[in-house]
Fold this sequence. Notes:
The chain is mainly α.
Amino acid sequence: MKNVKPNILLVAGAILAAALFRLVPHWPNFTPIGAIALMGGALITNRFAGAMIPMLAMLISDYLTVVLINFAWTTPAEYFSSPQTAFVYLGILSNVLVGYLLGSSSIRKEGFSLTSGRFSTSLLGASLISAILFFLISNFGTWASGLTPGNPSLLAVYALGIPFFGYSLLANVFYSFLFFGLFQLLCERYPSLREASVRS
């Protein structure tokens, strides 16, 4: 599959729909948001749109999570004004950047196919790197915000977050291969999906 040019509406719809998975009971940090960010960066050629669609998915799912699930512990105003939340969103943006690099190095040059060992390896590496970046940035935000009881050191905060990193990594790998695989099938079934894209 070369010169993949995904329909922006299809990609946006898939990303926003996938964000709703966050509202379903799941393991800690086992959500599709990292994969959504990778997909946005990799498949949407307009960099602004590629970043904003995953951020919008995160924003909507965060708001619904606070209002419907975590309303006893926080309010939307408290959550979105927290410095820790800002670092979480910064972590998501870092995943978009990884996705853009994946798209630049693999998809826009050679197309993508999960049956290709080269692309599958690149996607696996991107999933790992994005999980590491999100772990480092979001936990730094937790430490810098001083919200952890006992005010532990930065290294201690990272140590406490290691179990969550494992779930994030598994989620990135699972959802990335799922979403890219589904999109590959759609492009093969409907070649016209390659014709429309948002250009930078």
